[in-house]
Amino acid sequence: MKCGGVEVKKSFGIIGGMGTIATENFVHIINELTVTHKDQDYLDYIVFNHASIPDRTAYISDHTKQNPLPFLASDVEKLNYLGVSFIVITCNTAHYFLPELQKQSEVPIFSMPELAVKACKKETNKSIRVGIMATNGTISAGIYQKALIGKNVTPVIPDEYQQNLVMSLIYEDIKNRNFVDQEKYYQLIEYFFEECECDYIILGCTELSVAQEQTHYPSEYVIDAQFELAKYVVNQVKQAG
Protein backbone atom coordinates (compact mmCIF):
# COMPACT_ATOMS: atom_id res chain seq x y z
CA MET A 1 0.00 0.00 0.00
CA LYS A 2 1.34 3.44 -0.92
CA CYS A 3 0.49 6.78 0.64
CA GLY A 4 2.03 9.92 -0.84
CA GLY A 5 4.48 7.76 -2.77
CA VAL A 6 5.69 6.04 0.42
CA GLU A 7 5.24 2.30 0.95
CA VAL A 8 3.15 1.69 4.09
CA LYS A 9 2.91 -1.67 5.84
CA LYS A 10 -0.56 -3.16 6.18
CA SER A 11 -1.98 -3.42 9.67
CA PHE A 12 -3.97 -6.31 11.07
CA GLY A 13 -7.10 -5.86 13.16
CA ILE A 14 -7.81 -6.96 16.72
CA ILE A 15 -11.42 -7.09 17.92
CA GLY A 16 -11.11 -6.99 21.69
CA GLY A 17 -12.59 -5.68 24.89
CA MET A 18 -14.02 -9.11 25.79
CA GLY A 19 -12.56 -8.49 28.35
CA THR A 20 -10.26 -5.53 28.32
CA ILE A 21 -7.57 -7.03 30.59
CA ALA A 22 -7.42 -10.10 28.32
CA THR A 23 -7.04 -7.86 25.24
CA GLU A 24 -4.27 -5.92 26.97
CA ASN A 25 -2.59 -9.24 27.74
CA PHE A 26 -2.85 -10.34 24.10
CA VAL A 27 -1.21 -7.14 22.86
CA HIS A 28 1.53 -7.54 25.47
CA ILE A 29 2.25 -11.11 24.30
CA ILE A 30 2.41 -10.03 20.65
CA ASN A 31 4.91 -7.32 21.55
CA GLU A 32 6.95 -9.77 23.63
CA LEU A 33 7.06 -12.36 20.82
CA THR A 34 8.17 -9.82 18.19
CA VAL A 35 11.92 -9.53 17.72
CA THR A 36 12.69 -5.83 17.96
CA HIS A 37 15.66 -3.48 18.09
CA LYS A 38 13.84 -0.21 17.47
CA ASP A 39 10.33 1.26 17.41
CA GLN A 40 9.82 0.44 13.74
CA ASP A 41 10.34 -3.30 14.32
CA TYR A 42 7.05 -3.70 16.21
CA LEU A 43 3.96 -4.87 14.35
CA ASP A 44 1.33 -2.52 12.96
CA TYR A 45 -2.11 -3.31 14.33
CA ILE A 46 -5.45 -1.67 15.03
CA VAL A 47 -7.14 -2.55 18.34
CA PHE A 48 -10.87 -2.13 18.84
CA ASN A 49 -11.29 -2.45 22.59
CA HIS A 50 -15.04 -2.78 22.22
CA ALA A 51 -15.80 -3.30 25.91
CA SER A 52 -19.53 -2.57 25.47
CA ILE A 53 -20.13 -5.70 23.36
CA PRO A 54 -22.87 -7.68 25.20
CA ASP A 55 -21.82 -10.79 27.11
CA ARG A 56 -21.39 -13.71 24.73
CA THR A 57 -22.18 -16.48 27.21
CA ALA A 58 -25.37 -14.73 28.32
CA TYR A 59 -26.66 -14.65 24.74
CA ILE A 60 -25.64 -18.23 23.89
CA SER A 61 -27.42 -19.45 27.04
CA ASP A 62 -30.50 -17.30 26.46
CA HIS A 63 -31.29 -15.82 23.05
CA THR A 64 -33.63 -13.27 24.61
CA LYS A 65 -30.49 -11.48 25.86
CA GLN A 66 -28.83 -8.82 23.70
CA ASN A 67 -27.13 -10.31 20.66
CA PRO A 68 -23.38 -9.53 20.36
CA LEU A 69 -23.32 -10.31 16.61
CA PRO A 70 -24.32 -6.83 15.33
CA PHE A 71 -21.60 -5.25 17.49
CA LEU A 72 -18.96 -7.68 16.23
CA ALA A 73 -20.15 -7.30 12.64
CA SER A 74 -19.85 -3.52 12.95
CA ASP A 75 -16.21 -3.93 13.98
CA VAL A 76 -15.55 -6.21 11.01
CA GLU A 77 -17.12 -3.62 8.70
CA LYS A 78 -14.88 -0.88 10.11
CA LEU A 79 -11.78 -3.06 9.70
CA ASN A 80 -12.82 -3.80 6.10
CA TYR A 81 -12.89 -0.05 5.48
CA LEU A 82 -9.47 0.41 7.11
CA GLY A 83 -7.95 -2.21 4.83
CA VAL A 84 -6.41 -4.60 7.35
CA SER A 85 -4.65 -7.73 6.17
CA PHE A 86 -6.37 -10.11 8.61
CA ILE A 87 -8.47 -10.04 11.78
CA VAL A 88 -8.25 -11.76 15.16
CA ILE A 89 -10.87 -11.87 17.92
CA THR A 90 -9.56 -12.00 21.48
CA CYS A 91 -12.50 -13.92 22.92
CA ASN A 92 -13.01 -17.66 22.56
CA THR A 93 -16.77 -17.51 23.16
CA ALA A 94 -17.15 -14.89 20.42
CA HIS A 95 -15.96 -17.55 17.95
CA TYR A 96 -19.54 -18.85 18.16
CA PHE A 97 -20.25 -16.05 15.67
CA LEU A 98 -17.18 -16.70 13.48
CA PRO A 99 -19.00 -18.27 10.50
CA GLU A 100 -21.23 -15.20 10.11
CA LEU A 101 -18.40 -12.76 10.72
CA GLN A 102 -16.15 -14.47 8.17
CA LYS A 103 -18.87 -14.04 5.53
CA GLN A 104 -18.80 -10.29 6.14
CA SER A 105 -15.04 -9.96 6.32
CA GLU A 106 -12.96 -9.17 3.24
CA VAL A 107 -9.90 -10.83 4.84
CA PRO A 108 -9.28 -14.00 6.87
CA ILE A 109 -10.34 -14.11 10.51
CA PHE A 110 -7.95 -16.49 12.27
CA SER A 111 -9.61 -19.10 14.49
CA MET A 112 -8.16 -19.23 18.00
CA PRO A 113 -9.85 -22.60 18.80
CA GLU A 114 -8.43 -24.23 15.66
CA LEU A 115 -4.91 -23.08 16.53
CA ALA A 116 -5.22 -24.34 20.10
CA VAL A 117 -6.42 -27.74 18.91
CA LYS A 118 -3.47 -28.04 16.50
CA ALA A 119 -1.08 -27.40 19.37
CA CYS A 120 -2.46 -30.44 21.21
CA LYS A 121 -1.56 -32.84 18.42
CA LYS A 122 1.86 -31.54 17.47
CA GLU A 123 3.87 -34.40 18.99
CA THR A 124 1.77 -37.53 18.68
CA ASN A 125 -0.78 -39.39 16.58
CA LYS A 126 -2.12 -41.47 19.47
CA SER A 127 -5.62 -41.05 20.85
CA ILE A 128 -5.55 -38.36 23.51
CA ARG A 129 -7.83 -36.76 26.10
CA VAL A 130 -8.10 -32.97 26.02
CA GLY A 131 -9.64 -31.03 28.88
CA ILE A 132 -11.53 -27.87 27.99
CA MET A 133 -11.48 -24.97 30.43
CA ALA A 134 -13.85 -22.33 29.10
CA THR A 135 -17.02 -20.37 29.76
CA ASN A 136 -20.42 -22.04 29.90
CA GLY A 137 -21.17 -20.42 26.55
CA THR A 138 -18.09 -21.85 24.83
CA ILE A 139 -18.79 -25.31 26.22
CA SER A 140 -22.54 -25.36 25.55
CA ALA A 141 -21.96 -24.11 22.00
CA GLY A 142 -19.45 -26.94 21.48
CA ILE A 143 -16.84 -24.58 20.04
CA TYR A 144 -13.89 -26.74 21.05
CA GLN A 145 -15.70 -30.05 20.81
CA LYS A 146 -16.43 -29.29 17.13
CA ALA A 147 -12.82 -28.26 16.52
CA LEU A 148 -11.64 -31.60 17.96
CA ILE A 149 -13.94 -33.79 15.81
CA GLY A 150 -12.08 -36.27 13.61
CA LYS A 151 -8.72 -35.68 15.28
CA ASN A 152 -8.56 -38.86 17.39
CA VAL A 153 -9.26 -36.79 20.50
CA THR A 154 -11.70 -37.20 23.38
CA PRO A 155 -12.83 -33.80 24.68
CA VAL A 156 -13.21 -33.71 28.46
CA ILE A 157 -15.77 -31.33 29.97
CA PRO A 158 -15.63 -30.62 33.73
CA ASP A 159 -18.42 -31.68 36.06
CA GLU A 160 -20.86 -29.08 37.33
CA TYR A 161 -18.92 -28.28 40.50
CA GLN A 162 -15.62 -27.76 38.66
CA GLN A 163 -17.31 -25.78 35.88
CA ASN A 164 -18.75 -23.44 38.50
CA LEU A 165 -15.19 -22.92 39.78
CA VAL A 166 -14.05 -22.10 36.24
CA MET A 167 -16.83 -19.53 35.88
CA SER A 168 -16.02 -18.08 39.29
CA LEU A 169 -12.36 -17.67 38.31
CA ILE A 170 -13.30 -16.01 35.00
CA TYR A 171 -16.15 -13.75 36.08
CA GLU A 172 -15.84 -13.12 39.80
CA ASP A 173 -12.06 -13.00 40.08
CA ILE A 174 -10.55 -11.83 36.81
CA LYS A 175 -13.34 -9.89 35.08
CA ASN A 176 -14.77 -8.39 38.26
CA ARG A 177 -11.67 -7.82 40.42
CA ASN A 178 -8.70 -8.19 38.05
CA PHE A 179 -7.45 -10.82 40.49
CA VAL A 180 -6.10 -14.29 39.75
CA ASP A 181 -6.75 -16.82 42.51
CA GLN A 182 -3.71 -19.03 41.94
CA GLU A 183 -4.90 -21.74 44.31
CA LYS A 184 -8.23 -22.03 42.50
CA TYR A 185 -6.53 -21.99 39.09
CA TYR A 186 -3.98 -24.67 39.99
CA GLN A 187 -6.71 -26.79 41.60
CA LEU A 188 -8.66 -26.76 38.33
CA ILE A 189 -5.61 -27.68 36.24
CA GLU A 190 -4.80 -30.58 38.55
CA TYR A 191 -8.42 -31.77 38.45
CA PHE A 192 -8.11 -32.23 34.67
CA PHE A 193 -4.69 -33.86 34.80
CA GLU A 194 -5.21 -36.11 37.82
CA GLU A 195 -8.92 -36.91 38.10
CA CYS A 196 -9.82 -36.71 34.41
CA GLU A 197 -6.50 -38.14 33.18
CA CYS A 198 -6.16 -35.55 30.43
CA ASP A 199 -3.12 -35.48 28.18
CA TYR A 200 -3.63 -31.78 27.43
CA ILE A 201 -5.70 -28.93 28.79
CA ILE A 202 -6.88 -26.10 26.57
CA LEU A 203 -7.32 -22.71 28.21
CA GLY A 204 -10.32 -21.77 26.09
CA CYS A 205 -11.03 -18.37 27.60
CA THR A 206 -8.81 -15.31 27.36
CA GLU A 207 -9.30 -14.60 31.09
CA LEU A 208 -7.71 -18.00 31.71
CA SER A 209 -4.86 -16.84 29.48
CA VAL A 210 -4.45 -13.95 31.92
CA ALA A 211 -4.33 -16.49 34.78
CA GLN A 212 -1.62 -18.51 33.03
CA GLU A 213 0.38 -15.39 32.18
CA GLN A 214 0.33 -14.18 35.78
CA THR A 215 0.79 -17.48 37.65
CA HIS A 216 2.29 -19.80 34.99
CA TYR A 217 1.26 -23.35 35.77
CA PRO A 218 4.47 -25.21 34.81
CA SER A 219 3.42 -27.67 32.13
CA GLU A 220 3.91 -27.73 28.37
CA TYR A 221 0.63 -29.66 28.18
CA VAL A 222 -1.39 -26.63 29.24
CA ILE A 223 -2.30 -25.05 25.91
CA ASP A 224 -3.08 -21.34 26.14
CA ALA A 225 -5.34 -20.62 23.16
CA GLN A 226 -4.60 -16.89 23.19
CA PHE A 227 -0.84 -17.52 23.29
CA GLU A 228 -1.14 -19.88 20.30
CA LEU A 229 -3.02 -17.15 18.42
CA ALA A 230 -0.35 -14.57 19.27
CA LYS A 231 2.43 -16.88 18.04
CA TYR A 232 0.56 -17.52 14.80
CA VAL A 233 -0.02 -13.81 14.20
CA VAL A 234 3.64 -12.93 14.70
CA ASN A 235 4.72 -15.74 12.34
CA GLN A 236 2.20 -14.73 9.68
CA VAL A 237 3.39 -11.11 9.69
CA LYS A 238 7.03 -12.25 9.62
CA GLN A 239 6.40 -14.54 6.63
CA ALA A 240 4.56 -11.76 4.79
CA GLY A 241 7.68 -9.62 5.14
Distance between the termini: 13 Å
Low-confidence stretches: 2-8
The general outline is: globular
Oligomer: single chain
Report the helical percentage: 40-55%
β-strand number = 9
The level 1 CATH classification of the largest domain is Alpha Beta
Could you walk me through the main structural features you see in this protein, from its secondary elements to its overall organization?
The chain has 241 residues and is of the alpha/beta class. The chain has two domains: 2-111 and 228-240, Rossmann fold; 112-225, 3-Layer(aba) Sandwich (Rossmann fold). Helix content is 49%, strand content 14%. It has eleven helices and nine strands. The protein has helices spanning 20-33, 56-61, 69-82, 98-104, 112-120, 136-140, 143-148, 160-177, 182-195, 206-215, 225-240, and strands at 2-3, 6-7, 12-16, 45-49, 87-89, 128-133, 153-156, 200-203, 222-224. Strands 7-6-8-9 form a four-stranded parallel β-sheet, with helices on both faces. Strand 1 (2-3) and strand 2 (6-7) form a beta hairpin. Helix 1 (20-33) crosses helix 11, helix 8 (160-177) packs antiparallel against helix 9 and helix 8 crosses helix 10. The two termini are 13 Å apart.
